[in-house]
């Protein structure tokens, strides 16, 4: 048995001090057109939210620093409707001091089966895009102008009662088609900020290029879900764990927060596959 080499990353890392333009972080989190980055935070014991049922109680300034840079580099933030409701999303803006990084405004795209758009977003000056399926189309179109509603129903029905039929019955969305529609609007750098159900579906569809995970130095006990949640594969189905390759790891020494950037597509060494099993 050949034992693997281990790289000691954290003590050997260089210091990345706060900087108005965040040039170091901008380089570390370069966002290529066509790439979908997901950004999530989890506690040491795997919780995706704190006692108040939102992630604000488990994040901190280190997470905020990276969060801002990621928003500055994206064309569009994609979130599940559950997250928009829980975290009370409003119209997004480019983070202060980083607006020069992209000429266009930061767009928001909400993914929903129900088509139920939170009132805060309907009232915004800059309206969100809504990506929905057959079940949510009418409600979304009643709330928003037609050019803000992307209707992309899952179309896999073959009547055998399998997973694809279940997706159609739930009013599911063809997420790949939704992302293609955003790309056609010029929104090609996609930042998904969750939540756990949407992330699970994007991973299962093999649509996530990289997963940034902040490990919050806290424990919240049983209750909160993991950063991926849902029904998983149909009973009897099994999938091998998918690979991920570490691009970098940042450590905030005062609190102990860890910020990792994981690449999910096959790398040069073929070690990561990006084909999550859901
Ligand atoms: N730790 C973190 O980084 C993080 C990040 C984000 C959120 N959160 C937390 O996660 C919690 C919310 O969890 P959640 O799993 O319910 O969030 P979620 O995935 O954002 O919301 C689920 C809802 O989003 C819509 N949705 C998700 N996947 C869909 C798909 N494939 N097709 C169509 N619609 C889809 C549906 O909306 P409809 O109901 O409208 O059909 C669904 O009910 C909150 O407590 C929030 O604070 C944590």
TrEMBL record:
<dbReference type="InterPro" id="IPR024072">
    <property type="entry name" value="DHFR-like_dom_sf"/>
</dbReference>
<keyword id="KW-0521">NADP</keyword>
<dbReference type="GO" id="GO:0009231">
    <property type="term" value="P:riboflavin biosynthetic process"/>
</dbReference>
<dbReference type="InterPro" id="IPR002734">
    <property type="entry name" value="RibDG_C"/>
</dbReference>
<dbReference type="GO" id="GO:0008703">
    <property type="term" value="F:5-amino-6-(5-phosphoribosylamino)uracil reductase activity"/>
</dbReference>
<feature type="domain" description="Bacterial bifunctional deaminase-reductase C-terminal">
    <location>
        <begin position="36"/>
        <end position="233"/>
    </location>
</feature>
<keyword id="KW-0560">Oxidoreductase</keyword>
<dbReference type="InterPro" id="IPR050765">
    <property type="entry name" value="Riboflavin_Biosynth_HTPR"/>
</dbReference>
<protein>
    <submittedName>
        <fullName>Bifunctional deaminase-reductase domain protein</fullName>
    </submittedName>
</protein>
<dbReference type="Pfam" id="PF01872">
    <property type="entry name" value="RibD_C"/>
</dbReference>
<comment type="pathway">
    <text>Cofactor biosynthesis; riboflavin biosynthesis.</text>
</comment>
